[in-house]
Specification:
mainly alpha; flat
């Protein structure tokens, strides 16, 4: 099994990169012009979502600078500590819904401060891989197709983020406590 996984991890991407253009050539698809057309569409989409990205980044900056993050962490810490989530990990879990790179920086700080084998480091690592950047996804995908009313998508995304954060802590606490 280990040999198969090693083979797959080494050769999956090169095989896919080789097979897709080969398949396109067999089907007589103009590979280069199709690639250029796709790149043009990607550029147009990027330009279309810029206002949504600026709004999201501005909101993140205001959320952190206003002290709302600190207030939210202090309000939630008593509850989260009862279910095994250390208060030190909570800001990263909250930030993950807004910004992947911001959460990654917070996770790196936690790992540097507490270590990779600490309970805080383990919970941060598992939560980092479990949660989604909900607001980023909504800004990019809804912005790309011009949806301005997100309706229940925000609630569903945040519910999934909370559930994955709590379950990450529970699983880590069950495995390493």
């Amino acid at each position: 099994m280990s040999a198969i996984l090693n083979f797959l991890s080494l050769y999956t991407v090169p095989i896919v990169v080789f097979v897709i253009p080969l398949y396109a050539l067999i089907k007589k698809v103009p590979v280069y012009s199709s690639f250029v057309d796709g790149a043009k569409e990607g550029f147009d989409t990027a330009i279309m979502i810029i206002p949504y990205m600026v709004a999201m980044l501005c909101a993140i900056g205001m959320f952190r600078a206003s002290g709302a993050m600190d207030w939210l962490v202090s309000a939630l810490s008593p509850l989260t500590s009862m279910i095994g989530i250390p208060g030190e990990v909570l800001p990263m879990g909250i930030m993950r819904s807004f910004s992947g790179s911001g959460a990654q920086a917070m996770c790196a700080e936690l790992l540097a401060q507490y270590g990779t084998t600490s309970q805080i480091g383990r919970i941060a690592s598992v939560a980092m891989g479990s949660e989604e950047t909900t607001f980023y996804v909504l800004a990019v995908y809804f912005g790309a197709v011009g949806i301005t009313n997100s309706r229940q998508a925000v609630i569903a995304g945040l519910t999934a983020d909370i559930a994955s954060f709590v379950l990450a802590a529970i699983v880590v606490n069950l495995m390493w406590y």
